């Protein structure tokens, strides 16, 4: 046990739960002396017996009573869990934590820890590379202020006991207390009484209101004689462009102005949203800031078949993503403290840095900020590959979201040869619901590239911009196998109109006026949607397997007929439709089929439908066909793919779409 001496301490003690964060560690990762500030001693819990530690790291015995060791320490480093969280609050111990993947309770615990000024988040990249010093030094300056009880075990025991014996009665069998009670007595005696429902703590309600967890922007109120633009320009000057009467854009600009005011006043309440604090210190408010808006979209017709070349109708929705971008000379760029420390450790002086703040991060448990050296996108003098960029962003799931924003910079470097010599600061605020099938990711990508391009004087055609972010950001860097429909709708769509487009790859037919007596509604099914999910990807793969099989069959039939004459060709045909005068020409076209939607339903049913298998394993397909000719998906040889249904859907759906438009 380590005891805190009464005299002024000359050694600061860090307690680290190595066993808790072992999943973060790549093979060959070891603790190093330089990870700690001078005069610090680290007490390591959970180190393996044969693990060698530097002299300023001390291995604790297996039977060490960790609560006493934690109480005697000056700081703790680990991942948030109920135990570490409770000890940090009870002992008023600063807690430097690394975000925990797929732990649903983490946002709740993290908010409470930060509300009581007891926690600092360390970016996983900095943890693995040993850049601990700025976080530890900042942690020591914290003044944890939790004054509540520390007898949680006793309280929990009383709740369990009272609930089990049915101390209070209530008829609502779906209440939290009732379910708890049923779980306790299940298998012994089912009690029909409940204890008191557990309420949301007051501090969490306060934090939810203060932090604006629903990312709702302030409402702009105008009088009959005052326009939205006039209200906005009270706080800033619009140098170029117009807000086009959009209240959400006006609200976003007002929120930026409020960040400037809060930064100048130095206000920083203990429950103020972290991303707003980070954003307030991000911009040089006397310099230009470029703002772009991109809406989500409602898929009215043709959606799932866009990667098969379908005809689609898409409608932009009211909800949109706003992105604010500012570029600055590296020597004048405002940097977060841990970024400053990183540059100081590297000893190379100011260099171009990318810093991003994402509002509303708590809704999806992602990190609210992201930063990187722009040189990370370079290998020598050339931009890195998209594959390496995908691996770069995949290292930390909590910050993988940054690929949608930062990935646009790499695309501009690779596709347009842009050299980024200045630092870039970005704020992202999106009201497009995530995981609801209304293209939240496309809105972020389009708004990000639009704002970054504008800030660097680039004029990119709408179709090219949509294709850049779809093909390279979404498909290659993020790794989501979507088509181009979402991005095109966000770039080219107009309010109260349907965008008609043939996705081959992105040919706009025009805008269809929506009659005044017709309205479209999007209803939330409650089922989360993701183009990066397994179901979406497996259906897409099944579609491309079917296309490859159809091309192969058409080629085989055509070659056989040429080699053996028409009579033999007729023998190999499945029905009389293959004996049409132009049958051979059709087969030649089908042998090089680019998009399934170009195959007519009649032709599909007559020649190919019965020859396609219902299902096929990835291994069986690759043995015969080698590749499915889709660069954005990878076949899992162990998986069974639905081929016939996946292939039939885009062919039949496009036929219906054409009939509707006619």
UniProtKB/TrEMBL annotation:
Domain GHMP kinase N-terminal: start-end pairs: 404-493
Boundaries of every Galactokinase N-terminal domain copy: 283-327
GO terms in the biological process aspect are: carbohydrate metabolic process
Q: What is this protein called?
A: L-arabinokinase
Q: Which UniProt keywords apply?
A: ATP-binding, Kinase, Nucleotide-binding, Signal, Transferase
Does this entry carry the keyword Hydrolase? Answer: no
GO molecular function terms noted in the UniProt entry: ATP binding; kinase activity
Keyword Cell membrane attached: no
- The region annotated as signal peptide is 1-26
